[in-house]
Amino acid sequence: MSGLNVTISGPDGSFGGYLASPASGRGPGVVVIQEIFGVNHTMRQVADALAARGFFALAPDLFWRLEPGVQLHDSVEAEFKHARELLGRFDRDAGMKDVQATLDHLRALPGATGKAGVVGFCLGGYMAYLAACRTNSSASVGYYGVNIQSRLDEAKAIKAPLMLHIAGHDEYCPPDAQKALHDGLAGNPHVTLHVYPQMNHAFARPGGAHYDHANAELADGRTATFLRQHLS
Q1: Residue 25 Rama label (left phi>0; alpha psi -120 to 50; beta)
Q2: What would be the CATH architecture of the domain defined by 4-231?
Q3: How large is the average pLDDT for residues 28-49?
Q4: What is the per-residue pLDDT across 60-98, written as a single tens digit (0 to 9) for each?
Q5: Closest by alpha carbon to 123, among 201, 215, 46, 10?
Q6: With 80 as the cut, is the pLDDT of residue 1 above it?
Q7: Which is catalytic among the residues 74, 105, 165, 201?
Q8: β 140-143/162-167 pair status
């Protein structure tokens, strides 16, 4: 399946995105929120897979204010270092406005059903949590989001379903941060937490150093079921 590069209009300006559409030409939308590596081949694969399941999947370029169109790979040391530098300069609050603009774009597409959700990875997992708190996302899914515990005060604003996939041995989310997540979110009826006890960060990224096929399949299956349930 091949998607299209599109332009999204946001409150701070226009930015690019990769749109994969369902073969039927009709369906709900999903914003695919990038890792720190930009809208690269991995994120495009995620969008294509969601389109194959019947969703309009749109991955916005959240680093457009810093380096439009950047595509990096985690296996190249210099590119990983550059990605970390971009992360350090990324304005997450401005990025949330872009996520809302992407949701609006999806809902306005011909054939869109009006429902639209969010799926994010790493940085995108954190942004998916914020999307549940701050946007009109119909359902949100975050994979191994980092530093969510610093924004737990916003959880009271969650009004739509949120699913978080947590890597039990995440090198970027230590045990105390994971405990804070459970303590802060476990009682929220809108939130579902899934823990993958032996997994490290980015266990669902194909080709990544910590990729685990069985657990990635389990998490992706749960995500697909969750999105079908809440976006159909």
Answers
A1: left
A2: 3-Layer(aba) Sandwich (3.40)
A3: 97
A4: 999 999 999 999 999 999 999 999 999 999 999 999 999
A5: 201
A6: no
A7: 201
A8: parallel
pLDDT digits (tens, 9 = 90+) for 168-212: 999 999 999 999 999 999 889 999 999 999 999 999 999 999 999
No. of helices (H) and no. of strands (E), the chain: 6, 8
Structure tokens at 9: 């209009």
Q: What angle do CA 47, 49, 205 make, to 5 degrees?
A: 80
In this structure, are residues 71 and 146 in contact, taking their beta carbons and an 8 Å threshold? no
Assess whether 201 carries a catalytic annotation: yes
Maximum Cα–Cα distance across the chain = 45
Going from N- to C-terminal start, the domains of the chain cover 4-231
- The catalytic residue among 61, 74, 98, 170 is 170
The chain-wide mean pLDDT, for the chain, equals: 97
**Whether residue 170 lies in the annotated active site:** yes
